[in-house]
Give the backbone structure.
Amino acid sequence: MAIDRELAQAAKAWPFQEARTVIDRLGGADTSNTPDKGYVLFETGYGPSGLPHIGTFGEVARTTMVRNAFEAMSDIPTKLIAFSDDMDGLRKVPENVPEREMLTGHLGKPLTEVPDPFGTHDSFGSHNNARLQAFLDTFGFEYEFRSSTKCYRTGEFDVTLLKVLANYDAVMQVIVPTLGKERQSTYSPFLPICPRTGVVLQVPMEQVNPDVGTVVYRDPDTNEMVETLVTGGACKLQWKADWAMRWVAFSVDYEMSGKDLIDSVNLSGRICRVLGSKPPAGLTYELFLDENGEKISKSRGNGLTIEDWLTYGPPESLSQFMFAKPKTAKRLFFDVIPKSVDEYLTYIAKYPEQEPDQQLMNPVWHIHTGDVPAAGAGLSFGVLMNLAGACNSENPEVLWGFIARYAEGATPKNSPMLDRLVGHAIAYYRDFVKPTKQYRAATEAEYAALADLAGRFAELSDNADAETMQNEVYAVGKEHEFEPLRDWFKALYEVLFGQSQGPRFGSFAVLYGRDKTVELLNRALAGEDLSVG
């Protein structure tokens, strides 16, 4: 990833802008500004109350992009922690998991004490943690996974927990004014784990004893007074205090978060200062929405799953989606996948021709950490889907028969990315395009134009390129006076493919072959049913 440091320091892509906020926090990029812990720490947080979703991946991917940009500007070592808040109590049963009735009996317990409804791990928290790590590992992220439960129980947080206890009143003064009157009377930053039930208790503290490291609370069921240590996993902290405590305990330098956590970031930052530390730098990103414009929720399961995306698009396309405009709210549903795939393919094709400063603005530099692969055959995802439709086949070998003629020498073995795209395109076509196809007959004006186009294509050389064929499509539309011209392209796709839009027709025609494209046009003119191949 060796690049010119001056170019990196001047780069305008958002990961470089974020990396500069870390450098400013350190006081400079020189190794003399290395933190006492020996590295710059980037952190991402995850609440395993539900199955991991793409938003979780997005935070790790984006943070990794900032980390890579930082490393391009500085020799200070770095580390990335993926932290799981798995000691949180289970507040409600997710809608998208089995054994919901069983889970109801464990409400309030730490997620690592709730049985796994899938039956594969020792707890629900462990199951979801494993799902997250397995996915992150498929992308090759370099990270260190940390469990809240383990950090609390092994004493890793003890020193900082005692610091919170020593500053109990000051922490309360930060949080309590932000709460409603009823909650003010019951709030405490410390949440004892009930020794009788194992439930995470939200109860007020009757006594705070910093000198011996304990708090005293009244058991809500027995009304008895209970004294407990705040260390060793006997208590955990409320969310905002917990976040601040973690920043202090780990000495976190950078953590991004969603727009819905702006108030939490501010309050946790204030608590961090109360504890004598400096809050991390970080980006506030916009939220992911489902197709109805509603916030994606782990418990509701109303967004794309990680597995969904990887069925219909390669991992690189998901990283492309995450790179683009992090401060803009984006809808995350199936229709965005083809667009993201083709955006990725467009950027990777441009990369070799760009100047070094432009390459640092290109998403693929950040997706591949500067080690950008070759572009490949130059076929768009849309073209591959239309090829599947024109062939009326879901067999990759059929599509490869056309691809091999288009890209001489290309095979599934020597073009693995293209082979993956073929598989994804077939899956997306089968599940989303084919069921919605609505072919129609050409109007009189369209019939004449289609016949003209078939004749022009027939006169072209068998090895005419995409631009030549596209020019003929434009010429026919103009000469037959389609106004606006996009109505002509819409007619082409509705008559030939049963859909209102698609990729450049010239590119499809070259891939499908001149003769086969002429045959397709003539079949449409003859009124044949194109949906049966």
